[in-house]
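Hi V.,

Quick status before I head out on leave. The structure for the redesign project is tokenized and pasted below; the design run finished overnight.
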């Protein structure tokens, strides 16, 4: 049974934003049982964990002799080994993988930076200008995404690993007001969250936070 690592006490406070959520969701979509090894922030930087992930981050994936890190790579590996997250046709499959890269390399960076700025730079004199610059960049990306999505349910045909990653990226904007500026994207995120597999993954991650120790 594959084993993944996750925060012992997630900084997202049970909102399903930590990146192990992507891997949990992928497992749930394909019906693959998995185990979770919880790690503290201190343990993440230790040699045993760095042997799995040289950057000292989560999630990692272990299955037999194979160890992977980077959530996108793990989701792609799951999608390639199990039916349900990538189309059967070669061209459609290639497009889905392209959108997986787009979610993580094009859409996510300014969104994740916005989260960090709100946590780490809120008291700095440049905070407002920095936030405005990031919001402008995010609106540009959302505008492009909105134009592509149109009235479609998913990015390219049926639901795929691309949608799984894109929805997890976009969820980080909830509460910012930015998603609401693009109704079709807000509806797209809601469709992803309504999937039974998402709900199972969310509940599993939220339960970790609910039962986590107060320190460590």
């Amino acid at each position: 049974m594959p084993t993944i690592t996750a925060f012992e006490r997630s900084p997202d406070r049970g909102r399903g934003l930590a990146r192990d959520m992507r891997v949990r969701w992928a497992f749930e979509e394909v019906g693959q049982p998995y185990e979770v090894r919880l790690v503290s922030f201190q343990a993440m930087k230790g040699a045993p964990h760095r042997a799995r992930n040289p950057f000292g981050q989560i999630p990692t994936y272990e299955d037999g002799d194979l160890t992977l890190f980077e959530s996108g790579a793990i989701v792609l590996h799951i999608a390639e080994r199990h039916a349900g997250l990538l189309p059967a046709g070669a061209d459609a499959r290639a497009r889905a993988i392209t959108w997986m890269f787009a979610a993580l390399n094009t859409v996510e960076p300014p969104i994740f930076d916005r989260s960090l700025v709100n946590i780490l730079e809120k008291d700095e004199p440049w905070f407002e200008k920095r936030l405005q610059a990031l919001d402008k960049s995010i609106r540009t990306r959302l505008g492009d995404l909105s134009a592509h999505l149109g009235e479609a349910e998913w990015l390219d045909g049926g639901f795929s690993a691309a949608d799984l990653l894109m929805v997890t990226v976009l969820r980080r904007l909830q509460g910012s007001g930015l998603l609401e500026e693009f109704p079709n994207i807000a509806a797209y995120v809601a469709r992803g969250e309504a999937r039974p597999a998402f709900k199972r993954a969310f509940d599993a991650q939220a339960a970790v936070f609910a039962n986590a120790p107060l320190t460590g």
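Above is the designed sequence. The longest helix spans residues 90-120.

G. will cover questions while I'm gone.

Best,
W.
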